[in-house]
Amino acid sequence: MSNSAEQHAPAAGAAALKLGLIGDNIARSQAPLLHGLAGRLAGRAVTYERLVPRELGLAFDELFARCAVGGYRGLNITYPYKEQAARKVRIDDPLVRAMGAVNTVIFEQAGASGFNTDYSGFIAAYRAVRGDSPAGHVALIGAGGVGKAIAFALLTLGIEALTIADLDLAKAEDLVARLQAAAPALPVQIVGDPRAAAAGADGLVNGTPVGMIGHEGTPLPREAMAGARWAFDAIYTPLETQFLADAAAEGLVVITGYELFFHQGVDAWRLFAGLPVDPGDLRRLLHEAGAGPAA
Asked: Which of left, alpha, beta for 274 (phi over 0: left; psi -120 to 50: alpha)?
């Protein structure tokens, strides 16, 4: 289907695990490398394709349908298709159903199942940096697929209140409705300006593509970060965004998008392959490949 597949050497006699990533602006995604290295550690052959709908001349629904019958074991789903994917799969986890976004799809004989490892990956990334420290009052910039996953993860991390900033009011209102259904007592509000969202916040979260390679910039000026305690950026290409550089300069504890990428990838691999992977070994191999910081 695509000429952008990455292949990794199989163990003798092993059938290749066919995986793919559907998204826009994914030429620099390290997901093919991560899953190929996980396969190497597990002794399992892996092929992993980058699948960009517009480059293939297909709508998302058409591409998804082709993958469903194309021998794929599973897919990662990234911006901007996580919410569309959620409408095309069976979701057994009630929390993932509540958030309405999936980033991992498994194809089985009974049909396609959806999962959200952004949710579990963010919790792991947050705790690795901040331990049991509560998230406090959080400003979330961006209410799309990754924003939904992070918002629901924050429910687990002791969030006190959430302020959402998104230019797409319908998306923000949809997220508020989903959160209120899951946590009726949580104070949630919507504002139009990220600077207004950041006022008085303990945590600052960028869930938009602003700052990604190809979408350079920052969604929040440095002066608006004063007084916050921590910041997270969902972007990991580049590893250091302007958003996180500004946050660090203001003295905030920063959680990089690489940590989300890594932890969600480990969780997705276990779903795809049903095999464990040693996180320390995987980090080391990614670093040696020039795709991540030192372990």
From this structure: left
Residue among 48, 72, 81, 236 flagged as catalytic? 81
Q: Which CATH architecture has domain 119-255?
A: 3-Layer(aba) Sandwich (3.40)
Q: DSSP secondary-structure letter at 62?
A: H
Residue 225: partners with Cβ closer than 8 Å, 6 or more residues away: 198, 204, 231, 246, 247, 250, 252
The fold for domain 6-115+261-288 equals Rossmann fold (3.40.50)
Give domain limits for the chain. Answer: 6-115+261-288, 119-255
Q: What is the pLDDT of residues 83-120, one digit of tens each?
A: 999 999 999 999 999 999 999 999 999 999 999 999 99
pTM over 0.85: yes
**Which positions ≥6 away from 164 have C-beta within 8 Å?**
140, 143, 147, 151, 172, 175, 176, 188, 189, 190, 191, 197
DSSP H or E stretch at residue 262:
helix 257-273
Helix axes of 117-130 and 257-273: crossing angle, nearest 10 degrees: 130
Indicate if 79 belongs to the active site. Answer: no
The answer to whether residues 176 and 203 touch, using CB atoms and an 8 Å cutoff, is no
